[in-house]
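hi got a favour to ask and not much time before my train. below you get a single protein, a line of residues and a line of whole numbers that encode the local backbone shape. could you go over both lines and see whether the tokens make sense for that sequence. a few lines back from you is plenty, here it is:
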Amino acid sequence: MASKPRVKLPKSASAGEVITVKTLISHEMESGQRKDKNGEVIPRQIINKFTVTFNEKPVFEADIEPAISSNPYFEFSVKVPESGTFHFKWEDDDGSVYETEEAIEVA
């Protein structure tokens, strides 16, 4: 159901610089409250957790509820003390996990 997540952040930064990270994942985020054309409830299927680590240390986390719109977008700021890798993880109700990584070089 979900496609490859998209992440945007600078490729490089100065030590201690605060950068902006933007993420987007295509997902319908079905709330479980709508009915199909036959009157049957469409089962809930949402991304319920989003986590970000930098060099294996947590930097951002969100528990997501059914009221969020489809294609969830998150933007946040984070201070980068050193070169490293951000790891992004989205977890779906059906057990699916979508992950991607982005590196940043700190001078």
